[in-house]
């Protein structure tokens, strides 16, 4: 059973017709279109000879019936709203093609990686880290609708949830679009993912005093916005001293109150986050951030308090899987690939808690993702499929 | 006819009962309560022997029937929403008391200083600087309701609008609450206003590129929020080099787009303003601001553009009026007064285009204004009234 990249592309094209939106798709988790795509996928798995199930959280699982050692491969099939045709489904159809090419691979579409209803509810359920109480607590991020009745509505209530036995697998593979421009800008066609970066996210609240801009002298003011600007300026100065080559840090949100032209801001809320592959580097960055806040509180009239609001650990790729991807990439596109971290989060990061993992990136045209204009050249899709298959063969050999 | 500060306080207490809100009042311009207060005021003016009129824009004007030389005195009678009991009406009742004390004073409550319907529509109308076309264009700032039908609704349509003859007056006086804490903090009871500061207001727009915080390296980013922080940091560094002792500058508004924690800001909008009494100082500050923007555009990847969105010239107090206030203050509360600029804007700034003007401040408890908790000690109100009257007598002597 040879690899059939034509069949792989044809399945991607078919999936694109379920929930089409312009040149992309709109398949939010548990929408009618999403459920249609899950049923279609289960059918394609069965045709490929896999034992196909849609489980009680929406994971579509195709179990390989033959002897091991096995690999687990997959990604997600739902999309962000009005988003791209490849984000997620590429890794699912790629995994399916591995099984169709005769490799002992279990295929999974992990439910809701795109976080319409929670954080990685599908992959967490699959490793036994999402309880019934978690289901009861989960709500739609946009509408607040509870998850439990939604599972009932889409016909998933009462179905067992699949959990994997890690000893069954040599590891888990995921192919995905890059969602950035590093490959494109470097003229490369394949990214071998060294790991998924960790993220630490903080809220910083600066408290000043709201006053009229005319009646209050500079000496009297407690301008929370100005303190926030100075604090962010210190971060801008200090973070380059402690970061690593690929670290990133971002102030995504600045909210002044009352944010009115003629009123001195009485309160400033900042949301600041940083990412790196190394916990040691992230510890240095966090230490730097806390020292900046401490120094701000020494210098300024407006006190700043810092609170951690999000933390995910980095997930490093397994060395053997990394070596298999690198060997396959160098064999199939010599000099046209690079090793790189994934700045975005993926199900592999959850699977890494129980399995060796590895990921492969294909370029995103213009770096666009989470938008219907997302695309990848067809020859890059085909190359990604070939590298994935070659790496799987090397791992199983 | 001696000055009667008891009558003055009693009138303030009466006005406080029209539109009472907690310990303050709610009399937005042309509300039922506002119109009631205007009719009440016109009645009190007539009782004082003034020729009282409510004109076609809502100005309540009491013309002194006797021979000159005359003074014009007044302030405003409407309030901000749910605001204080003295902001405005203090200067109106103070002016009325001057006339009742036998001084040749025309009294005016200039309509809508609190800008519910426009910028100084009453005082601008009074000096002939508010046209019928301006009335047609004016709308309520909060609701968008047009002014013209509102004037009809409250019974002002078709009434003539009064314009003053500047040659009738030696000058215009206004007593007002400080709306700040400078007098209170210095333990002083009277502020003699050297002038009303000018204001220049600018919008600065920084354009970057919205991207995922994970997938975009620091080298690739165009972070409009970061450029804005650096630009504001430069202002913070450079403005102290060009400002004067009482200059103030403020970034009241910062709006990032999309202002989402995990997205690099693609656009930042800042509203920045500064105030000073001296045009020369304000020219230096504006030049500094424009150089900061130019330097930002030299250093940064995200271009910044600057646009002037507001400009009012400073209005200096007339030297003779200033001397009269200073002499009266030193006579009545030696050592317990200071000369100071007004950081807030007032009708006197409009009148200054055609008349010599001067203002007197009494302390605001805790600096509170534009809030129902606004207050001033009764002995400070009485002292303010006495200084105002003594200064008027000196000017007319």
TrEMBL record, chains A, B:
Organism domain of life: Bacteria
One Pfam family, short name: Peptidase_M20
SUBUNIT field: Homodimer.
Family annotation (InterPro entries): Amidase_Cbmase, Bact_exopeptidase_dim_dom, Peptidase_M20
Family membership noted in the UniProt record: Belongs to the peptidase M20 family.
Name of this protein: Zn-dependent hydrolase
Organism, scientific name: Roseomonas alba
Transmembrane feature ranges: none
PANTHER family: ALLANTOATE DEIMINASE-RELATED (PTHR32494)
GO molecular function: hydrolase activity
Database matches in Gene3D superfamilies: 3.30.70.360, Zn peptidases
The entry's keywords: Hydrolase, Manganese, Metal-binding
Cofactor: Mn(2+)
